[in-house]
Amino acid sequence: MSKFLSRALALIAACLVGSAYAAGGASYPLDRFPTAKLSDQTALQNGAKLFVNYCLNCHGASAMRYNRLRDIGLTDDQIKRHLMFTADKVGEPMTVALRASDAKAWFGALPPDLSLTARARSSGAGSGSDWIYTYLRAYYRDAERPTGWNNALFENVGMPHVLWELQGQRSLRVEDIHKHKDEKTGATSMVKTVVNVDASGRRTKTDEKITDGVPPAGKTYRFTPAEGGQLSPMRYDSDIADLVAFVTYMSDPSAATRTRLGVWVLLFLSIFTIFAWNLNRVFWKDIK
Questions:
Q1: 3-state secondary structure of 216
Q2: pLDDT at residue 86, as a whole number
């Protein structure tokens, strides 16, 4: 029985690891999202502006209401004047004006709601914030895709790069080292496949047999610096971090409040413990 249980647990663990590997886009490493942005109201407000201007055109956030933006320092007047384009009252959810039928006709599928994306994309490879932060910085031109864009983290993604005017365009070099079996001889060798995609999306591919040593299999990605964007690479990364901070905030708007309350609760319990211990000592002193 114990042997059966150990095998079952091992199988479950393997399945969990495999699912986490797939969910995190394991072939492309995740960049770490700067978590300090989550407590920066200026960053969250800028993220809200970017979300409304670039994301809310197609993606909804139906679990988030406009009035929750008060928590990041915005007044009702600021929300109405600068962020509300598809609603009349601040108590309404952040829904999208795009009709489902039009979305399916244009994109082939309805763009997902982003309310809980930061939670849904969490995996063993990193947090959901890490995934979104990496995803929005991993786009490149690809002339073979219908939209003209592709993504190193999410290959063959249907969503185009809506922020490309801010970031600019760049080329990509992918080196894929893998085993190759010769169909005629049956011999196995290591091969390096190199794919170069220039800034206009043209793709070239070469294969090279590896004869010197046995390098580990896997893919490596190398982007060139973006050119032609409205923002510098540093400013673009900062704005993307602001946007991800807001999307993360949407997935759990009360997280910061719970953290603050938790500190006070722990402080109260610590002080109460001291008083309770002294009271117990005084009460039992004469009885003993």
A1: coil
A2: 75
Are 140 and 168 a contacting pair, CB within 8 Å? no
Residue 151's Cβ-side half-sphere holds a number of Cα atoms within 13 Å equal to 23
Cα-trace Rg, the chain: 26
CA dist 97 and 254 (Å) reads: 27
Q: Which of 96-110, 151-165, 169-183, 238-252 has the least mean pLDDT?
A: 96-110
**Segment 142-169, tens digit of pLDDT:** 999 988 999 999 999 888 999 999 999 9
CA distance 257 to 100: 35
| Structural tokens at position 122 | 């969490």
User: d(Cα 38, Cα 71) in Å, to the nearest integer?
Assistant: 12
Q: Is residue 131 within 8 Å of 30, Cβ to Cβ?
A: yes
Contact in structure between 25 and 125 (CB atoms under 8 Å): yes
